[in-house]
Design brief:
The protein is α+β, with helices and mostly antiparallel strands. It is built from one helix and seven strands; from the N terminus they run H-E-E-E-E-E-E-E. The radius of gyration is 13 Å and the shape is globular. It starts with 5 loop residues before the first helix and ends in a 5-residue tail after the last strand.
Length: 101
């Protein structure tokens, strides 16, 4: 998978839109942090400001929460190829949801 896939572009555009809407509604006086991505060999890393919030596995489209700045958490939180485009458990402010157990 490359970052040029329509599914990834839809995921990233919608993620950015939701975050900007959240910031404008809840914190209108603050500047919203930039949301960007970096294409790696296996993962696409999603950043909010200088923090890594998620990884997209390029082999299967899984959305993974960040365990650290360099590594994803073990279990997927969604998939960019599912009906919700990977955003079903994605919070507008904090990113991928924690697993409930």
């Amino acid at each position: 998978m490359t970052v040029a896939t329509p599914q990834f572009q839809t995921f990233f555009t919608e993620r950015r839109r939701r975050f900007l809407e959240y910031m404008a509604t809840n914190y209108p006086r603050l500047d919203a942090e930039a949301i960007r991505y970096e294409d790696g060999s296996r993962y696409i890393r999603i950043f909010r400001g200088s923090s890594c919030e998620a990884f997209i596995d390029k082999t299967n489209g899984d959305v993974l929460k960040s365990a650290s700045w360099r590594a994803p958490a073990k279990w997927p939180r969604g998939n960019i190829f599912d009906a919700s485009n990977g955003l079903g458990t994605y919070d507008a402010h904090t990113g991928p949801a924690y697993l409930r157990g």
